[in-house]
Design brief:
Length: 162
């Protein structure tokens, strides 16, 4: 039998990091968001220093902060506005989004989201098939991650995981 790690062990080994928000509403009631370290680095160092794609949008840094806060404190997320259950649905990959940010990942457990990939709105809409690329990359990363089974909420519907 092969040993598989817990989320805390993957954090200790430097593979994943838990997004921690200080907002008191996040304590005990909200959701958890875990990031692959490289994706978290891109979000903080690269994305947050960019200019918005649309001139009337808030800064990408603020967009990311609002999205992450709203997720972890348990705010309502609207299909097609704040998230998208990517097709084919049986892959169980979700995209969380703002005007400029696309975050791709899966629900390890209800209300526990693992972010594997992130990219700008502009780059995810520049080429045909790019969403399939991100969906497939997330599925590959999930498969390779040595994580306790089941690795995701199979057959996830938004009402199951949000």
């Amino acid at each position: 039998m092969t040993y598989m790690a817990t989320l805390d062990e993957l954090e200790s080994s430097g593979i994943l990091s838990l997004y921690k928000h200080s907002h008191r509403a996040a304590r005990g009631k909200g959701r958890e968001m875990w990031f692959y370290r490289e994706t978290a680095r891109w979000l903080v160092e690269d994305f947050c220093s960019m200019e918005p794609f649309y001139a009337d949008s808030i800064s990408p840094k603020k967009q990311a902060a609002v999205l992450l806060k709203n997720f972890v404190v348990g705010h309502e997320f609207e299909p097609n506005i704040n998230f998208w259950h990517m097709r084919p649905h049986d892959e169980d990959v979700f995209e969380l989004k703002t005007a400029d940010l696309r975050i791709f990942g899966w629900f390890y457990r209800p209300r526990v989201f693992i972010v594997a990939q992130a990219q700008t709105f502009e780059l995810t809409h520049n080429a045909a098939g790019i969403h399939a690329h991100y969906r497939n990359e997330v599925a590959r990363m999930r498969e390779e991650l040595e994580l306790d089974s089941p690795k995701w909420v199979v057959g996830a519907r938004a009402s199951d995981v949000f």
